[in-house]
Specification:
- It catalyses: ATP + H2O = ADP + phosphate + H(+).
- By secondary structure, the protein is an alpha/beta fold.
- It is about 35% helix and about 15% strand.
- The strands form six sheets. The chain has an eight-stranded parallel beta sheet with strand order 5-16-8-15-14-11-13-12. It has a seven-stranded parallel beta sheet with strand order 19-20-18-21-22-17-23, sandwiched between helices.
- A hairpin with an 8-residue loop joins strand 3 and strand 4.
- The longest helix is centred in the N-terminal third of the chain and has 36 residues.
- The relative contact order is 0.09.
- It binds adenosine-5'-triphosphate (ATP).
- The site of adenosine-5'-triphosphate has 20 residues, from strand 7 and helix 9.
């Protein structure tokens, strides 16, 4: 095979040589002929032309070429891009958004050579024109965290009015000018007599909103329904007066304007007969008593009749106190009181069991400590109360309807359509609405949309008393939504990190070394309350036998005690006859005792709301106060509420405790004896 192939190569080379020789010979002959024909001076160009045409047209030459390089006539280089049909290549671009865009190939002018035989494709690359610059796909500006958080929230909450807690306005004692307080002269005088000379922040916002400027229709606003109100303000910021003052003013006075000044006159009161105009619902009896006292102080000399219903007295006794008429059935109801302050349980009892007890004339429904009350589902009290304030559906009331002429004053306007005296209903007939304005108050107002929806609020207006930050309004709303509760600015908060076993001794150290008296001490249960008081008493007894320490009066206050005793203890504490009151969370809300300078959470509160209310028993109405929490694990709750930074963390050294240890150990032994015996 190898020999064969070498022979063929030799033969081909030989043939090539012969052809070349033949070509060269002919070329030589042609040159000779040309030499002969050559003119002497000119004609160079002609020869050149001939030579050129020879080279191009000479069949031999062509033959030669064909023979000479039959296969490699087009070199790789020649083929290049010219011979190949241009490929339409797809260019892929990845956009910023991550999607693939298919883009047309760059501009190429492709033309086919006219001589089809050669089948040559000539590609003329024209300079690529610059493409128009399209803007890069840009992501929209990301909304702020707070903007995202408020999405889907109740609009009323987003539009909450943020009230600066430092705002106060002086109350002029005399003269027709109310100084922007919206209070009558009579009321302003009364406030000054009670030592109140300025309005606190929450009051400055609420009073103008709650005391209507229109002197007419103050008790019944059936055709001008007013907005309901939700108020979130720190503990001790004066929320009680923010509703007590407008209630007294609206019920007892009627005002009119003279030369731009508000003139109020009790004789012009729109109150013709006594009806239940204001209902205040509170979670505990103690709070009912406290709010009643505020009404009595501020409403003195105004002829306002205030009643309470807490179950402290018999049902019959309460009925006699509240109702004028129990025997006959009255469509307009009957009441001896203008204002009723009550707990929800007893209120339901009267709604269901007291004849002529009606809420149809209510102008104000106040739910104080609203988050606590809304959490109580007792007999579905809220739904029952709300339905009692609305016009009952015709035929829903089993009592027979009697024609009443003339138009009865005793029936609320929203009840009138129920009375079968001749009306002329037209398409213009407007259905009267309940005139009841709902007011919700708390230092930890719920933002739970479900619970708020249950209140069927009418176009609610939110007031949130909290320090204004240098941030967007959304952030304030976010604080509201995220339940970041604001604290009194005069409160100093401390946490003493200690193990449970160290708590009793640490507490004794606080009392005897840090002078923590005039204090409320919160424990987790009634049982812990009693135990701590016993230990304290044993410890003091030990101390007194070994030295001359003055004796401190420490008492327990819990649900284990009879109501009468509880009341007496609270009175003694108010009178500073008791120095330390150890209690359960029974009085962690709302109780206002001005001299409380310390609050000790002996057992850490279970949630942030409880913490806010407990520590809020001190530092009230701008006074200074100190809160102490004894705990090992407490910071997570504070961190979640974004409140960790505000709390000073302290440790009590072993050394500080050694002086107290002997008496403490003796007290512990006594305590053990007591519990083993019982
Ligand atoms: N304008 C005022 N000037 C002086 N003292 C006031 C004023 N308003 C309220 N107070 C007093 O401030 C104290 C706290 O008020 P209040 O009990 O209404 O607080 P609160 O906001 O309801 O607190 P909490 O959330 O704990 O129930 C009370 O002793 C009250 O008399």
């Amino acid at each position: 095979m190898a020999a064969e192939s070498s022979t063929s190569i030799a033969a081909s080379t030989k043939a090539k040589t012969k052809a070349k020789k033949r070509y060269l010979r002919r070329k030589k002959e042609r040159r000779k002929v040309r030499e002969k024909q050559k003119p002497s001076a000119t004609g160079t160009s002609k020869v050149d032309e001939l030579e050129e045409s020879d080279e191009s047209d000479d069949g031999d030459d062509q033959d030669y070429r064909k023979e000479d390089v039959p296969v490699q006539s087009i070199t790789q280089e020649d083929v290049g891009t010219e011979s190949r049909p241009p490929k339409r290549r797809k260019t892929t671009e990845v956009s910023l958004a991550g999607t693939k865009n298919e883009v047309e190939p760059l501009n190429e002018d492709v033309t086919m050579d006219e001589t089809e035989e050669t089948a040559r494709v000539v590609v003329h690359r024209t300079p690529t024109p610059s493409l128009p610059i399209f803007p890069l796909p840009a992501l929209p500006n990301a909304p702020s965290k707070s903007a995202l958080a408020i999405q889907g929230l109740d609009k009323a909450l987003i539009d909450a009015e943020i009230v600066d807690p430092d705002v106060v306005i002086p109350i002029p004692a005399e003269g027709p000018d109310d100084g922007g307080s919206w209070l009558s002269e009579k009321m302003r005088k009364r406030l000054h007599e009670s030592g109140i000379t300025e309005l606190f922040a929450v009051q400055t916002s609420l009073l103008p909103f709650l005391i209507p400027s229109n002197p007419q229709h103050r008790l019944y606003l059936s055709y001008q329904p007013i907005r309901d109100v939700c108020v979130s303000a720190p503990t001790g910021s004066g929320k009680t007066m923010a509703y007590v003052l407008p209630i007294i003013e609206v019920i007892t006075l009627r005002s009119y304007f003279v030369a731009g000044l508000r003139i109020t006159n009790q004789m012009l009161s729109s109150r013709v007969v006594t009806h239940l105009r204001a209902l205040i619902v509170l979670p505990t009896r103690d709070l009912v008593t406290q709010v009643r006292e505020t009404f009595e102080v501020l409403g003195k000399g105004r002829g306002l009749k205030v009643g309470t219903a807490t179950g402290q007295h018999s049902f019959a006794h309460e009925q006699a106190q509240l109702m004028n008429e129990l025997s006959s059935s009255l469509l307009g109801g009957s009441s001896k009181v203008d204002v009723l302050i009550c707990t929800p349980g007893r209120l339901i009892d009267h709604l269901n069991g007291t004849p002529n007890f009606t809420l149809q004339h209510l102008r104000f429904l106040v739910i104080d400590e609203a988050d606590r009350l809304l959490a109580q589902s007792f007999q579905d009290w809220l739904a029952q109360v709300l339905s009692a304030t609305r016009m009952p559906a015709i035929n829903a009331d089993p009592r027979p309807l009697r024609p009443l002429y003339p138009r009865p004053d005793a029936v609320a306007p929203n009840m009138l359509p129920r009375i079968p005296y001749p009306h002329l209903p037209t398409f213009l007939t407007e259905v009267p609405e309940s005139s009841c304005q709902k007011l919700l108050f708390s230092a930890t107002l719920t933002r739970d949309p479900g619970k708020i929806a249950a209140l069927q609020l009418r176009d609610p207006k939110y007031f949130v008393v909290q320090k204004r930050k240098e941030t967007a309004d959304e952030d304030h709303v976010l604080d509201v939504v995220m339940e970041k509760f604001s604290m009194p600015s005069t409160l100093q908060e401390n946490m003493i990190v200690c193990e449970s076993s160290q708590k009793p001794l640490t507490f004794l150290h606080l009392v005897f070394a840090q002078n923590v008296t005039d204090a409320l001490v919160f424990t987790k249960s009634a049982e812990s309350t009693t135990r701590l008081v016993r230990l304290f008493d044993f410890f003091q007894a030990e101390q007194t036998t070994h030295g001359d320490k003055p004796t401190l009066s420490v008492r327990a206050y819990s649900s284990d005690l009879p109501i009468g005793e509880r009341k007496a203890i609270l009175e003694q504490f108010r009178a500073q006859q008791i120095h330390i009151l150890v209690c359960s969370d029974l009085i962690s809300r709302g109780i206002d005792i001005s001299h409380v300078s310390h609050v000790v959470s002996y057992d850490a509160p279970v949630d942030m709301r409880k913490y806010v209310h407990r520590v809020g028993r001190t530092a009230r109405a701008g006074r200074a106060g100190c809160a102490w929490t004894l705990a090992r694990y407490f910071k997570n709750m504070l961190k979640e509420a974004d409140h960790f930074q505000q709390i000073k963390r302290l440790r009590v050294s072993e050394k500080d405790l050694t002086a107290l240890t002997p008496a403490y150990e003796a007290a512990l032994r006594h305590l053990k004896d007591v519990y083993t015996r019982s």
